[in-house]
Amino acid sequence: MVNKTQGERYSFEDLVEIMARLRDPVGGCPWDLQQNFRTIAPYTLEEAYEVADAIDRNDMNDLKEELGDLLLQPVYHAQMASESGTFTIDEVIDGVARKMVERHPHVFGEAQAQTAEDVNQIWDHKKTQEAEGKTGGAAVSALDGVTAALPALLRAQKLQSRAAKVGFKWSRIEDALAKLDEEFLELREAIKTGSAGEQAEELGDMLFVLANVGRMLGLNSEDALRQCNGKFERRFRGLEHDLKAQGKILEQTSLDEMTNSWNEQKRRERGTA
User: Fold this and answer.
1) What per-residue confidence (pLDDT) applies to 25?
2) Which of 50, 68, 195, 242 is 20 to 30 A (C-alpha) from 12?
């Protein structure tokens, strides 16, 4: 592979070759040569979150760049696997392509699907067949396949969704809200009389039920919290800017003054300032 001019474009095959060169024991990059699956895994997660962040910000230029960074991750992992003879990037691509064809018989076969719910049922059935195939036909849990590496709030909602598909769910949102009230009272009691372990358990219970409320509302709790984090950061940075513009030092500013500035940020966002 040669260096390309500004007007030429690199291909996927070029990217694979670049990664191989970086991992070449002779003339490769010292940093890349020190890496393994465990050390690269955090970067894989980080790149996925940065893609989500670019989408949230509707920044298409940033999204293009972040998708490239994310694309590098499977190439990186596959290169390390190929060095030990485990698998190659071509096998990765073949595997996912076959999976997509097999899980979409309504597109690539004779099955019929008129609605998104029809597709979900086909998808779940195919995934169950695949899971049973891996276990030799042994019984599988409805919760199988929900990876433990997911962010806790997202995993909670996925576990609840899996359980709900087999009927383990509240039929009314009011029942979930009543359970949320119950968990909140138990948390308050643990704060008064419980140990740190009990408090953590009750907080976890409340968050778990809250994620279930999000599921029942058709909302993604992880996305909702990420958006809330963004809103908090935006308003707090505005608060910092305004107070500093007034010559005030944050650490020496009263909570009342900070609260007034915070409320001002909210009014500005709502267009009522």
Assistant:
1) 95
2) 50
